[in-house]
Design goal:
The chain is mainly α. It has a domain at 11-84. Helix content is 69%, strand content 0%. The longest helix has 31 residues, at 105-135. The termini are far apart. InterPro entries: TMEM220. This is Transmembrane protein 220. The chain crosses the membrane at residues 16-37, 43-62, 74-93, 113-135. Keywords: Membrane, Transmembrane, Transmembrane helix.
Length: 151
């Protein structure tokens, strides 16, 4: 008596997908940390990629860790330091009046990330489109019969 809701024992499929995505992102950040070995300022970049890797792995293994104070403080500190680095780089570009940002190391990195993101989007789009039409059966109602049997 007095209970507002009953706690479910089984996890929802969205929770499972969220955990899997965090584990994949953890692996991505871990690999990004590893490839920084050859960089002249590897320590800085390894910490920058390593912290999100650990944070994502902890969410993937235990999603309720985000409710703990240490996890939140580490995440907030990382966001604060990353924002400060972006502000410092922006100030340096403004102060030194750099007009061609792609000639700087910091400018080439986001362009490379844009290329990788575009390639990933092109690769993933057919699978996402197929899944979207497969889940939403009402979109397939007006298709010809030979298209309905293809899926």
């Amino acid at each position: 008596m007095g209970e507002v809701c009953k706690e479910k024992n089984s996890e929802s499929w969205l929770s499972v997908i969220w955990r899997i995505c965090n584990l994949f992102m953890s692996v991505f950040f871990a690999l990004a940390t590893y490839v920084q070995i050859n960089d002249p300022d590897a320590g800085l970049w390894m910490v920058g990629y390593g912290v999100p890797s650990v944070l994502c792995a902890s969410i993937g293994l235990n999603p309720h860790v985000t409710e703990t104070l240490p996890w939140r403080r580490i995440a907030d500190l990382h966001v604060m330091i990353s924002s400060a680095v972006v502000a410092i780089l922006g100030w340096r570009l403004c102060k030194e009046r750099i007009t061609d940002i792609l000639q700087e190391e910091e400018g080439r990195s986001p362009v490379g990330m844009l290329r990788v993101s575009t390639a990933t989007a092109i690769t993933v789009f057919p699978f996402v489109a197929w899944l979207y039409y497969y889940i939403n059966t009402e979109l397939r109602t007006n298709w010809p019969s030979h298209c309905k049997t293809a899926i």
